[in-house]
Amino acid sequence: MTAPVILVRMRIFGFGSYGGPEVAGFLDVPAPDPATVPDGSVLVASTVTSVNPADIKVRSGERQGSFPVRFPMAMGREAAGIVLAADPVTGIAPGMAVFGNTVSRTGSFAEKVYLDGVGATPVPEGVTPAQAACIPVSAGTAWDILNELRHDGLETGGTVLVLGAGGGVGHCAVQLARAIGMEVTGVAGADKHDFVESLGATHVAAGDDWMSTVNEIGPVDAVIDLVGGEVLVDALGMTAGPVRSVAAPSVGGGVTRRRSRTVFSELAGLIADGTFTPHISASFPFPRAADAVAAVENGHALGKTVVRF
């Protein structure tokens, strides 16, 4: 007699169609099989994931054509967890605590997650899983922007204007820019004054007068934009130096991401030695994933918001 096939299921917080918050929710889907891990992948039992504004843009359909989606799909793009199985070519073994970015067409708001083996990185001593889960998207994007700005001529001691300095990528960009010898002017809401200043930047309150305030502070040698819209357009006229925009790549110049173990290990090392710290302002249990997403979607999140399993 043939033994019955037992289909293992898991929960994800995801979406089955594009739209607003109403299309997202908990879904019961087939769990990945540790015995059949795709080439170049690492399967982990999730420990923590983080929320990024880009996750909301993917759910809403704003990234159609540039970001592959397979419905139903979990939200999220970065996670930390314990390895269940891995393609041997990755050099990652079961039982290891790792972090990284998810495999294309998969998400991280799930009990089990596929990480791309190229970026899957062991969590080093001195770094918490929650901090590690903030590296692939937020810290990694900030680091890649700064790498490109320096390549484009930004010199040590120059002044970087960060638009959206209090958010996930922004607060990492401020700290990392300061770590490599830059001066930083950070535009963010007035309620984020103390936070932005604590990171080493000169805070400028967002609003009608932000440009005049920046001009009073001094020349701008480069711009990191995380806001887009008219704010970015205005900022383009404030510098002859390089500009990189996450919010509007076609306007300010995009960012070439380096999602590799080498880059992620470098950033983890900077956290471990105290050079910078992902500031986690809110931590939600997985059953409250919707609240975590809402906290970021309302536009007022401070630093990073994470979801723990």
UniProtKB/TrEMBL annotation:
Gene Ontology molecular functions: oxidoreductase activity
Transmembrane segments: none
Domain Enoyl reductase (ER) positions: 19-307
InterPro entries hit by this protein: ADH-like_N (IPR013154), ER (IPR020843), GroES-like_sf (IPR011032), NAD(P)-bd_dom_sf (IPR036291), YIM1/Zinc_Alcohol_DH_Fams (IPR050700)
Source species, domain of life: Bacteria
Pfam families assigned to the protein according to its UniProt record, in alphabetical order: ADH_N, ADH_zinc_N_2
Protein name as it appears in the record: NADPH:quinone reductase and related Zn-dependent oxidoreductases
